[in-house]
Input
Amino acid sequence: MAISAGKLRGLRRLSDAAGFFRMVAVDQRPPIRNRIRETRGEAAVTWENVGEVKAALLRALQPHASAMLLDPGYALPYAHRLLDPAKGLLLTLETFEFEMLEGGRLTRTYPGWSPATIRRAGADGVKLMLFYRPDAPTAVNDRQHAFVREVGAGCRAADIPFLLEPLVYPLGEEDASAYAESADKRPELVIETVREFRKPEYGVDIFKLETPVPNATIPAPEGEGSDVADTQAQFARLNDLLDRPWVMLSAGAGMEPFRRILTYAFRAGASGYLAGRAIWADGFRAYPDMAAFESRLRTGGVPYMAAINALLTEHGTPWTTRPFAREEGAADGAMEHEGEGWVTTYP
Output
């Protein structure tokens, strides 16, 4: 199929020239606030404190990324002058607070914000984190389904790429002060979530996925045992469900576990990553000395990005070669309604 003009432009902006997504997340709110609180105390967690951390992340890591993910509460208003216009920009639509309904979570957005607002702010894509479990109560999932359809419709109307990040969460758990992988996560919970939201009615263009296998049990991909083959098979199941690109999130995994996750994902068909803490968490060992914090990002986070970028180049799948971006008889990544009549058909 061909891709609409705005979404095609957005996908190209978010990826590099080879068609890979090398995206760094600095939209985290509770994780960064918690790190500041642990070091400086509750009273020191100010808007400026959070903003200066996000600014340091931008300065150190942006040169090595294809795109940056920012939040409109801290990162964009505080550090917007640091944004490289040659890089892609994703903005997150959701707040981290959620509503509880009959034992499940409902995602909430910033009041007054929509895909149209994000487009108007100059972003190249909309990111939505969605708390979701296929085994949650029907009333909860019906609300979440309708919510994603609404966001997808808004992205279609604004002609901007829609990146969905579904997260398995502990049922009945009301505290999300910092996202952590659900202890009862099973492969089927991740697989069935993808099976649901791949449906065209949701309008998702990129999936940001968590590993179907818990972080703690990911075997070294260089091995040859049955556990390696079984793990690779789970990642292959994700890829086989999707005709559009997918990238991996780090879900708070450390550098080595995330490298293992990415190896399996890239071998399976993933087109990149959208990660935060696996890249920059180590920098907080030097916090609150901001100069030392930024230096540690450059000596630790930057080489790590170089390593996973090389892994992506070796094993990853460019998004332009995914089935949704290919049209028989046309170049990969063809624009919808190309040709002389485009000016009349696009509106």
The chain has one domain: 5-337. The chain has twelve helices and ten strands. Residues 5-337 form a domain with the TIM Barrel fold (CATH 3.20.20.70).
